[in-house]
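Appendix B. Extra example for self-study. Work through it before the problem class; the solution is given directly after the inputs so you can check yourself.
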Amino acid sequence: MPRTDVVKVILPESEIPTAWYNILPDLPGEPLPPLHPGTGEPVGPADLAPLFPEALIMQEVSSERWIDIPGEVIDIFKTWRPSPLYRAHRLERALGLTPGKQRIYYKWEGVSPGGSHKPNTAVPQAFFNKQAGTRKLTTETGAGQWGSSLAYACALFDLQCEVFMVKVSYEQKPGRRTLMETWGATVHASPSDRTESGRKILADHPDSTGSLGIAISEAVEIAAQSDDTHYSLGSVLNHVCTHQTIVGLEAKKQMDAFEDTPDVVVGCVGGGSNYAGLSYPYAADVLAGEANTRFLAVEPDACPTLTRGTYAYDFGDTAGMTPLMPMYTLGHDFVPAPVHAGGLRYHGDAPSLSGLVKAGLYEARAYPQVPVFEAAVMFARSEGWLPGPEPAHALKGAIDEALAARAADEERVVLFNLCGHGHFDISAYEAFLGGELEDLQLSDEDLAASLATLPPQPANA
Amino acid sequence: MPRTDVVKVILPESEIPTAWYNILPDLPGEPLPPLHPGTGEPVGPADLAPLFPEALIMQEVSSERWIDIPGEVIDIFKTWRPSPLYRAHRLERALGLTPGKQRIYYKWEGVSPGGSHKPNTAVPQAFFNKQAGTRKLTTETGAGQWGSSLAYACALFDLQCEVFMVKVSYEQKPGRRTLMETWGATVHASPSDRTESGRKILADHPDSTGSLGIAISEAVEIAAQSDDTHYSLGSVLNHVCTHQTIVGLEAKKQMDAFEDTPDVVVGCVGGGSNYAGLSYPYAADVLAGEANTRFLAVEPDACPTLTRGTYAYDFGDTAGMTPLMPMYTLGHDFVPAPVHAGGLRYHGDAPSLSGLVKAGLYEARAYPQVPVFEAAVMFARSEGWLPGPEPAHALKGAIDEALAARAADEERVVLFNLCGHGHFDISAYEAFLGGELEDLQLSDEDLAASLATLPPQPANA
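Solution. Structure tokens for the complete assembly:
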């Protein structure tokens, strides 16, 4: 029986994991390499050198299962790690779950300076860039969680930081912009007139609300222009997912301390990194035949990559400058409706996570935003924390898993990643409480039109 | 020698203190009782019964040194307590302190759901009211830290919550208002037309930006009208300061874990509760002759109660409905300039804290807001956390203590209370970074005019 006398488990600093888990060597099937956008040939380390330092490129393609975390990075992690893992006692009661039979746990990543899981990769990315002599990092950001976390990490290592922020979020969340500036970053609303990619979009669509794909194009363009400037991505890539596994590695120790084991692991998915972070250490056990955990990826109805997208090679950005990656995609020039979960407005998904969905190991589900905010307010009034709009999707998925088990009179242990707080998304709560939040759906016509712009699929795919 | 291999100390849940420290029996000199505003006679428990439940009234006047914390309250504290205590390694380096010679520590209370120390008293106040059959709590709030914390606590105990928010903060910090509403509270900008006190102020001063004194009058007026409605105060009173001592009791254990002892304990002071909370358990040792710790209370230039106010009997509110309390005051109808540290805009101070300043055990210092925000940005770029404008005053005091010791080539250990985050004060950072923040000073003329309105001092004072 699990322990019931504990609300949260916080491990001591000495229990911070000292190596990241790299899922690449354990993935089912033959690996599908990323392809060069011009030649269609598999991308090699040299192709990535203009954008990333060598250490991160080696992590991107590594076939090693474990990658050491540098001591300097662990020292900074001690600012907020290990993060707490909670038993949601009060939420369970509010939901009327069968006492002890359906149990909900959550990993709480909102305790970082950036307010989410994003510093878990921002700090090592800044560290490895600093080591390689980089002077400036460029990046994109949706809701601002990633941009502010990179701004924080750059401040620690005395790196310049230039952020392209999706315009709809730039306007909805001015607090996030100021937060980035407080940490010393320069922030542009994207599409901007600072880049060729941005100017092209603005010429065709002067009222564009922006997208992560567009912002990536702008950040990559700036980075490619200077030798001392690199690009930093907050999700999707393998080294990012690998950095985030510190979340799941801690969670496994903490669930052990609760003397309990999850039946289903839930997370929200934009590019996939927070969910990869929590779930891959659990997936490793399933892939090794040692567990039969279920996995549930949750996304917004307005950007239903896993549930309505196509598995194909596609660009990571809108302008077609990045390698072609095998993933679920809505088409690289897809511009999602301006839902408040800015971090989930990405047309693609991490290739590793896409592969696990394609292989049937991971389930996926999409929700409209109004019931997601209903769940978030219920959570705030029971557990206390104000979820970000993104993890509120994971919360909604976790609640539905527990309620389904209650309806079936089954035991079920649900673990989800509460990957960030909503303090800078408070205008979304204001809209919800004021009855002004809309459920934004993607029409079949818009989806078909977007998928029609997929690039020709390579012969070796 | 102190431990240097540790960034933060987090105690396990089992180390949450089980009793609060009540400083009343240890205060120097004869106690000066609060006086009835009508009769001028010492206030008895019966006089407070319309506003507070019996359990809190007994704590207010208790002569017991230790007061047990109910188990139900400790269970909720486990949501965020024990809070972490940090060694500010990175700030020390940014300041260029002599390595190991000047050492800065901070207690981090921004980890609570409300984002500050305020839930430490909101939760027990809601608990004792629920036990007494209260159905609704009214209160005032400045920056919104207190109002949102009481809203959170009321949500946990299914109590209604009505908050009067100082108008300048209501307008500067709409996010705080939405946060209170997310937790289910009703929020009014004060002065409001909901009360007699508010209507009177509006008639005389239609453009009033409000003050804590005015908001208290409004909240007390509503509470006094109904038997099932009580009033809840977030600072000043003895039971509030007592509840906050959980901060200092934890800090002492954590400093022991660091194998270090503070030479000076620093905090910001509005009503005094966060600083009382951190410092009283240390003051107990000084009052018992067992330590010679220094104490530094920091306040804003715009509301310099301890540094330029008068020690006298005064009302806690503007309308003169509360008991007369012996304290440093700027006059009960003082309306401070609209500095961003809304929680420090109170005309008086806790009687216990005022007494310690009067007795010479506590020092006090005032700062203008621009250098306070310079310190806050430096802290964000080194330690990572975004301080609230209020604890940024404590931070500034702590930095100056450490720099003074460096200049004198002395060893000095500084401990301060980082009592809340600034996520909902981001507009203040925007103003600072944009060069639009002003140092708002109180003129001698305005101070003299305000002090001239002090009530006649009672014969027995």
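Self-check: The first helix of chain A runs from residue 45 to 48. If your reasoning did not lead you there, revisit section 3.
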